[in-house]
């Protein structure tokens, strides 16, 4: 999503409301996880219902969890905490904290993945499966997604939205992208610029008019 910075003489349309409770979905999975804790809205996966909704929104990116409970919630929060520390350092080009990497490694080791051959009509297929309880599998998949991003050369390109009241992260496909969602934060910024500019024009017009009305003084 890129932002069209062209200004026109008319006021931009009012920003549209988010279509879902989660303002940004579809970034690398590790960033989607971190984006569940936007500053203004608090923790969007603070409880089982919120986490279940987020998992549903991720579609086929994670193995389905039949029932989200306290164990799944704790496991996801632990991975998110480790991801926050590790990615914050990696984006700055620094070495991630050892404690964060240990937590991510432990999550992946608790539910290692392996491939199994499955016989089906017409031949065989290979599928990737994980051992462990649902909470362990979920944590391992998320930790693996964090590991994928940490080892991606593009990790230093991860940006935070430039809107003053937004902390959502994204990996821009285009270097000109400045906002998490152009139709939301980008449009709000354009609206603010538009009214600030026209307010300034009005102040100048009023000031000029008063100067013209001021009577001339004679010595």
Write a short abstract of this structure:
It is built from 6 helices and 4 strands. The protein has helices spanning 29-34, 48-57, 70-91, 98-110, 134-150, 182-213, and strands at 113-120, 123-130, 159-160, 169-170.
Keywords:
6 helices, about 220 residues, globular, two-stranded antiparallel sheet, mainly alpha
How do the strands and helices of this protein lay out in sequence?
Blueprint (H helix, E strand, L loop, with lengths): L28 H6 L13 H10 L12 H22 L6 H13 L2 E8 L2 E8 L3 H17 L8 E2 L8 E2 L11 H32 L6
Antiparallel strand pairs: 1-2, 3-4
Helix pairs in contact: 3-4, 3-5, 4-5
| Poorly predicted regions | 1-20
| Topology order in helix (H) and strand (E) letters | HHHHEEHEEH
The proportion of residues in beta strands is 5-15%
Global morphology: globular
Report the radius of gyration as a whole number of Å.
Answer: 25 Å
- Which secondary-structure class do the elements indicate? mainly alpha
With strands numbered from the N-terminus, the spatial order across the biggest sheet is: 1-2
Number of strands: 4
Q: Largest beta sheet, briefly?
A: 2 strands, antiparallel
The chain-level mean pLDDT equals: 83
Alpha-carbon distance between the two ends: 64 Å
Contiguous helical run count: 6
Helix content: 40-55%
Write up this protein:
There is one protein chain. Helix 3 crosses helix 4 (98-110), helix 3 (70-91) runs parallel beside helix 5 and helix 4 crosses helix 5 (134-150). The model is unreliable at 1-20 (pLDDT under 50). The longest helix has 32 residues, at 182-213. The chain is globular. The chain is mostly helical and 219 residues long. 46% of the residues lie in helices and 9% in strands. The strands form two sheets. The protein has a two-stranded antiparallel sheet with strand order 1-2. The protein has helices spanning 29-34, 48-57, 70-91, 98-110, 134-150, 182-213, and strands at 113-120, 123-130, 159-160, 169-170. It has six helices and four strands.
């Amino acid at each position: 999503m890129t932002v069209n910075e062209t200004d026109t003489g008319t006021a931009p349309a009012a920003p549209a409301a988010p279509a879902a409770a989660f303002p940004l979905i579809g970034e690398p999975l590790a960033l989607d996880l971190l984006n569940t804790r936007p500053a203004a809205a608090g923790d969007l996966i603070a409880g089982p219902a919120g986490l279940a909704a987020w998992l549903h929104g991720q579609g086929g990116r994670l193995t389905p969890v039949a029932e989200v409970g306290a164990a799944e919630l704790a496991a996801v929060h632990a991975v998110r905490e480790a991801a926050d520390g590790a990615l914050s350092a990696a984006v700055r080009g620094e070495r991630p904290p050892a404690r964060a990497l240990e937590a991510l490694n432990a999550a992946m080791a608790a539910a290692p993945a392996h491939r199994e051959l499955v016989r089906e009509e017409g031949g065989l297929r290979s599928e990737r499966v994980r051992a462990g309880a649902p909470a362990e599998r979920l944590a391992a998949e998320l930790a693996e997604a964090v590991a994928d991003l940490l080892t991606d050369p593009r990790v230093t390109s991860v940006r935070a939205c430039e809107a003053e009241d937004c902390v959502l992260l994204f990996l821009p496909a285009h270097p000109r992208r400045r906002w998490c969602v152009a139709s939301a934060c980008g449009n709000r910024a354009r609206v603010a610029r538009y009214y600030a500019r026209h307010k300034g024009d009005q102040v100048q017009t009023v000031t000029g008019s008063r100067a013209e009305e001021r009577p001339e003084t004679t010595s």
